Fold each of these.
Amino acid sequence: VCLALTLAAFLLEGLRGMRRSFWRTKRKVNARASRRWSGRFLTAVLVLAGVCMIVVYVVDPLQFVRKASYEPYWSVEQRYQNPGVAKNYNYDTVLLGTSTIENLRPEEMKPLLGDHNVKLALSAGSLYEQRLTLQLALRSQPVQTVYWGLDYMAFGGSADRVEEVLGPFPNYFYEQNAWSQWKYFFNYSSLKDSVV
C-alpha cells in the first residue's frame, strides 16, 4: 500500500511537471530532466522498500528472526508461525501433528513431558508439511523426544501435498537458504501484521 501510494504520487508529480514543461516550451522534456526524475523515483522506491523491510525486521510479527520480547502476535495460520517458534524457542520435546495435537496445551503437558516442550501442530497438515516442520525443529534445537500424532487424513493426496486454503504454503520459511527468506520482509501480510 505504501509502495503504491508513493509510486502514484511520483507519477502524478512527474506527469504534472512534464505537462507544464511541454505546454510552456512546446518541446519534448530533455533527457537530463528525465534521468533526474527517474533517479529520484527509483531512490524513493528503494527507500520506501527499505523502510518496510526495517519495520518488519524490527517488529518481527511471526518471530521468524528472534523470539518476541513483548506479548507475541499469534497467527491463525501455523504454517507461517511455526518456523519462527521452531527456530527461536528453547525446547527438547516436540508435539507434532494436525488439529488433534493443536487441542493439547503444552503447559498442561509439562508434568508428562517436562518444562521444555513446544507444540508445532498444523491444522489439516499433510505428512509432507509435518516432515518439513520436524526437519526445521531438528536443525534448530537439540530435540530429544518427538510426539507425533498421525491422523489418517494426513496420509491422503500426493507425497508433497501442502494445504493452501488460507494462502500459499511458505516454502521459504522452511528452507535453509537465507536468500529465499527475503519474501518475509517484503510481504504485505508481514508489514500489515507489524503495523497493526
Note: The first strand starts at residue 93 and ends at 97.
Amino acid sequence: AVELSRAIEAEILLVRVVPVLKSIAPTLEIPWQTRKAEKRQRRMAEASLHTARSALINSNVRINRVEVLSGRPASAIIQYATKECVDLIVCTNRSSVSSRPWHLGTVALKLLRNAPCDTLVVSTDAREALTFTRILIALDGSDLAERALVPAVSLSKALSAEMFLLRITPPIALAIGPDEAEILTPSIKGQVERYL
C-alpha cells in the first residue's frame, strides 16, 4: 500500500475491524464481561493502528486517518469504502495454508466479490518491502477480462513496472481429441498472437 500510495500520490486510510459479538450472534444475551472484552479489543486495535501509522511517518505517504470499525469485517470495510469513496482496498489473505492453490480467506473473497472499488489482495507470504516490478495481466479474450487492462496499465506506468500479457485458451484437446488439437494449434496460436 505504501509503494502504491507514493507512486500515485494517494492518501492511505488505515482501517481495522473489531468484530462485535452482537453483530455475529444477534440473538444471544451478552453479559457485561463480553462487552468489557470488546472494549478492550477496540483499544488494542486503536493502539495497533497508531503504531502502524507511526511506523509509516517517514515513508512520504499521507495517512490522514486511522479508523477502528465494528461489525462483520467484510461488511464494515465495504460500508466504509463506499462512504469514503475509496478507490482501492488493499488487504492480506489471512487464510490458513490450504492444499487448494487459489484458496482465499473469507474476508478477502467477500471484498473481491462485493467491494465498490478495486481490491488488491497481498499474499501473507509477501516480502517485508513489497515492490511491484513485473505485472502479469491474464486475459481470456472476453470483454470482462479486458476491463483489467486500463487499471493495470496505469499501475504499471505509475510503478515503472514491466507488464506481461497472458492469453489463456481453453484446453481444446479435451474437447476434440489430441490429433485434431495438434492440427488446430498453429491456427489458435496465430489468433492468440494477433489478439495480444
Note: The mean pLDDT is 82.
Amino acid sequence: GIGSKSAFAYTDNFTIVNYHRGVKSIFMCHVAGSAEGDLVRVSQQPTVEEDGLEIQIPVAAKDIDTWISKAKQFFSHWKVVPIFEGNTIVIDKVKCLFESNDWYITEESTQAKVLMGNICYPIDKHQFDSVDTRILDCGIVFKAQIGDVDIAASREGLQYTNRTIKYFLNKLSTLIVILFMMLILLKTSKNWKINS
C-alpha cells in the first residue's frame, strides 16, 4: 500500500532489512530512476536473527528532535512499540482511566480520537450537528476496526462520509449509556466516595 512508500515523503532513498526464515535480505529503495520509486536487492545472506523487519531512514541532524517528538506522539497508542536504533526514544504509553473493547478514556482531557490500524486520527466534533459533543473533549479514543471509518486520501485525517458519521453516532450513543450506568453503579455502591 501507500504506507510502504511513505519514507519518500522525506527522503529520496532508504534501506529495508528483512530477516525471514534464516535469511537476511537488504533492499535499497530510491526514486532516482522512476517516479514511483525502485526497490533493489543489495544482498542476501544466512542469519541467526529472529524474523523481523528493519527500516533505515537517513534523518538530517536538524530534524532529529522533530522526529523524536513525532515518534513519541505517534507510537503512544501502539500495543507493540518498535525498537529504535541510533537514538534512545522512550515512548510513554497512553494512561487509561477506563477501557472497554470499543473505546478508552485517557487521563488527559484532549480531543477525541479514533484508533484504527494503529493510527490515531483526531475527531472533528464540528462534523456532528445533531448531538451534544462535549463528551468528545474528555480524552476518549474509539477503537475502530479497519474499514469502520473512512480516511482521507492523504491518510492524515478522517473523511466524514455518511458511514463515518453513522459509526461515531452509534458509538457515542452507546458510550453515553455505558458511562451513565457506570455513574449510577458508583453512586449506589456502599463504598463510593470521592478521594481528594
Note: The two ends are 50 Å apart (CA to CA).
